[in-house]
Amino acid sequence: MDHLRHMAIFKQIVDAGSISAAADNLALSKSVVSHHLKSLEVAIGVQLLHRTTRKQQLTPAGTDFYQHCKQMADISQVAWREARDTGGMLAGPIRISAPHALIDSIVAPAISQLCNDNPLIRPTITVADQRIDLLSDDIDLVIRVGKLPSSNLMQRQLGHFRDVICASPDYIDKHQTKIDAEQWQSLDYIANSWQKATVTHSVEPLPDGKIRKAEALKQLNFVANRFTDNSSAVGALAKAGLGISLLPEFVFKQAEQQGLLAMLLPDYQCPMNAVYAVHDFGRKPPLLVTHTIEAVMRHFI
Hints:
Elements: H1 2-16, H2 19-26, H3 30-44, E1 49-51, E2 56-58, H4 60-86, E3 92-98, H5 100-117, E4 121-127, E5 141-145, E6 154-167, H6 169-174, H7 176-180, E7 190-191, E8 198-205, E9 218-223, E10 226-227, H8 231-239, E11 245-248, H9 249-257, E12 262-263, E13 268-269, E14 272-279, H10 287-298
Helix pairs in contact: 1-2, 1-3, 1-4, 2-3, 5-10
């Protein structure tokens, strides 16, 4: 059975990009990993990797062999997953990525409840507002706002929420004349990393508000002049009076109750945002992924 272990380690070397990195990932010494690679090449009589002090490169034979090793790894993962799922027990690691705005109110409570009910689950949660590559970042489940336009990945809607265009009460009072005149580009705007320097928001009258439906949509065009890389920082800067921001309604409500934020246009609302779970397991994801999706979905209800 040594050849199966050699193949698994060879795949790790290729995926990691070097013997040293593979050794770190596998918690083995560099000499042990090198020995496995050398034994594999001797056993099959073909060089699989060109190695220099700076880089490694697959040989043509190594490229073909790597594809077979990858197929073997995929088959073993499916076999392991299906056997474990047959027992109906939720256990093991799961890597989840979610944006900052959804952590406190949605993701953390959902995962906490799931782990309390299933103590053998070992979650790793990566918090990022930027787009995540499931394969290169080794993520099992991505929770994201907005549907991917075209993708082979599986997507399932979890729920929805509205954003709120807001600022500190002091900032609004200070700039009320410009707000009334709709001089949006003369106001300060705090942008998240996923936003562009020029930001446009569409708003519609509240259904039970005093604004006539005939006045319909407004387009608010801002030019960002404050920048940060996550929604928590956006909220903090807005509370500090640095400018206008776009925050999820459940984040805004907490700050509004504390008197820290107020709506820029109280008679208007932003359109709904859909939140999706995204994974790369096809139509039959592991039981743990399915239950995690359902746990997060329950916290949107």
